[in-house]
Amino acid sequence: LSIEDDPSISRALKMMLARHGDMHVAGTIKDALDTLKLEEFDLVLTDFELPDGKGTQILEWLSSNGSQTPVIMLTCFWTKSLILEAIQYHVFGFLEKPFDPKELDEMVVNALKRRMREKTIHRFATIGESTGNLVHEITNPLTVIVSNTAILEQGSNPTAVDLPKVTEGIKRSADRILSLISDARTKLRSPKPAPQESEADRS
Questions:
Q1: Distance (Å, rounded) from C-alpha 183 to C-alpha 166?
Q2: What tens digit of pLDDT does each residue of 67-102 get?
Q3: How many C-alpha atoms does 147 have within 13 Å on its Cβ side?
Q4: pTM of whole model > 0.70?
Q5: φ, ψ at 51 (rounded to 5°)
Q6: What is the DSSP letter of 17?
Q7: Which helix (H) or strand (E) holds 163?
C-alpha cells in the first residue's frame, strides 16, 4: 500500500516496485485507513505530510490494531520529534525525497523478508495451538471408541452386550472426531478477520 498525495510520485513508486507485486495507492489518511480496515498488506509506504494528516497516524493505527505490517516513511525533511514518534510505533525505515531507486528497492526487499518471516512464525504458532486444542477435544470421543471396542472384544456372551448401543457410541464418537478435524482445517485456511473499527475511527 502506497500512501502518497502526489500522483507523479505514486506512479514512480509503482514502476520502481512493480517486480514486488501489485501496489494499491491511497492519497489521504482517510482513504488509507478505509483500505486497511478491509485488507491486509505486506508493506506500507507512506508520505509524512498528507492533505488530512501525518503519516505517523498510519503507524499509530497499525500498532493499535496489532498489525505487524512494516512501514517505510518517505519525506522531504526530518525532525527529531518525527523520528522519535515514528520509532515509538515501530517504523521499519525512513527514506528522504528524492529517494534513490536502488536504496528504495533494497529497503523494500528487507521489509518484505521480515514480513514473510513473521507470517511464517505466526502460521506455525497457529498450527501448534490448533493442534493442541484438537488433541484435547478428541480425547473424550477417542476414549468412548476405545471403551466400546473393548466391550465388543471382551463380550464372550453376545447377548450380554447391547450391540446397537455400543456401535452407535462408536459411530457418534468417530463422527465427532471427523467434525473436529474438519473445523480445525477450516480455521487454519480462513483469512485473518479485518480489524474492528474503534470509536476514534468513527469520530
A1: 26
A2: 889 999 988 877 777 788 888 878 888 888 888 889
A3: 11
A4: no
A5: -55, -35
A6: T
A7: helix 163-189
